[in-house]
Amino acid sequence: MVRNAFGGPIRISEKNPHYFQYKGREILLITSAEHYGAVISKKFDYVKYFDMLAEYGLNYTRIYPGAFVECQGKWLPDDNMAPGRDLIVPWARSDIPGYFGGGCKFDLDRWDPEYFDRLRDFIEQAERRGIIVEICFFNCEYEDFWAYSPLHRDANIQRVGECGYADFQTLKDGPLVREQLRYVEKIITETNKYDNIIYEFIDEPTLFLTPSREACKWIDALIEKAVETEARLEKRHLLAQQLEIGVDYCGDDRIAVITTQYILLSSRQVGGVPALNNCYAFGKPIEINETAYIVSWIKDGTSDLAAISRLEAWEFMVGGGAAFNQLNGHFVVPNPSGENPTNRIILQGLKNLRAFLEGFDFAKMTRDNGAVRKVSIGASVNAISEKGAQYAIYIHHSFPHGSGGTWYEPNYGNYGPVLTLKIDAGAYKAVFIEPATLNVLCEIEFSCDGNEFDLACPPYTLDLAIKITSM
Questions:
Q1: pLDDT of 382-430, one tens digit each?
Q2: CA of 225: how far to CAs of 106, 191, 198, 199, 374, in Å?
Q3: 404 class by beta-carbon count within 10 Å (0-12 exposed, 13-18 middle, 19+ buried)
Q4: Is pTM, for the whole model, over 0.70?
Q5: What domains, with CATH codes, occur in the chain?
Q6: For residue 48, what is the enclosing H or E element?
């Protein structure tokens, strides 16, 4: 990593390893982002997309740079990960027709200069707006997506990619692995000069029961290629890998960032508060970089999308998370800015979260499971603190949706619980805040002697944030 307090790539905070540092200060990464195809979907206007994020102070986006492509109609009619004939990837097109997604097949021996111009401009446009780009090289292949990947045998003229979809993320197919490693090396080489990027290796590597041992051998090869490639280049960037049952790089010194998905345990994925509880001790930033796909999985009008987004984001970040991304289907080719009344409420909820946390000296705070000892009624409670100085607490009332618990359904009511707290002795001020608006509901001053005591909350209908600071 380039060691310059006011320059160089985004890195781990020197004050607190659970957070990031960028351009001389600690930052939180918070966003509601498009479905990862902003670069490979040639018609997607990412400048309008970035302008909307910047309007709400959101500073994070995520892309798949071309090895993983989806079939049209799977999630949304205009999904950015399924651009059809408008697909542009690192490999140049040949003059031989027959690509499953439309147009000519790919020539793996030739890179496409137009693609890399677009990729570089994407990163530069993001940097101008203070947005960090997480580049995720791969996702596990799905049975119905595999044929759309340029690395599938029927999609390229070299006939590379003879394996089945569940073996894509293994070392079994030698020619395929060589192309995968060339792709990782090329993406890193072309983007190494930028400071606003994090490299992530693969999402969901064993989702379709690829053996963990085989997947991890393959991930190790990717990591080694990334490390080797950057060793001969100017800059060193953070490397990230998703935590999954059977795929755990939390203790690997090469991996600086622990990425998670969804709010609980979903399929083989470990996310949300369970990830914070189990992985915080590793002393690394922990992300939720994907949540339930709003507008696709959760339709407008069927649930309170703004509340779902807010519950997930506030719980995780006020619990000690470093980055949060709400996967958002409002951002598509026909509407790249995501202009929509519901979406603006979603983005405002995330803007409020960033403002709330930045109202603390958050770099001095860590996850605190001991400050709130009891709640008088059922609720989910998370907190971070600098003991004796500042405490951030978030309370919400919801229930996991369905058997998988992929998102929270809001449980509106008339709430006003009493919290039993145990914080360091001293005089404090507590400010009770409505997360949806940042309106202050009430303020109180109190003193405590270091023993347990009760703090009554004002009335609210779904969720509540509390800021406690020493006086």
A1: 999 999 999 999 999 999 987 677 999 999 999 999 999 999 999 999 9
A2: 23, 15, 15, 12, 49
A3: middle
A4: yes
A5: 11-363 (3.20.20.80), 365-470 (2.60.40.1180)
A6: helix 46-55
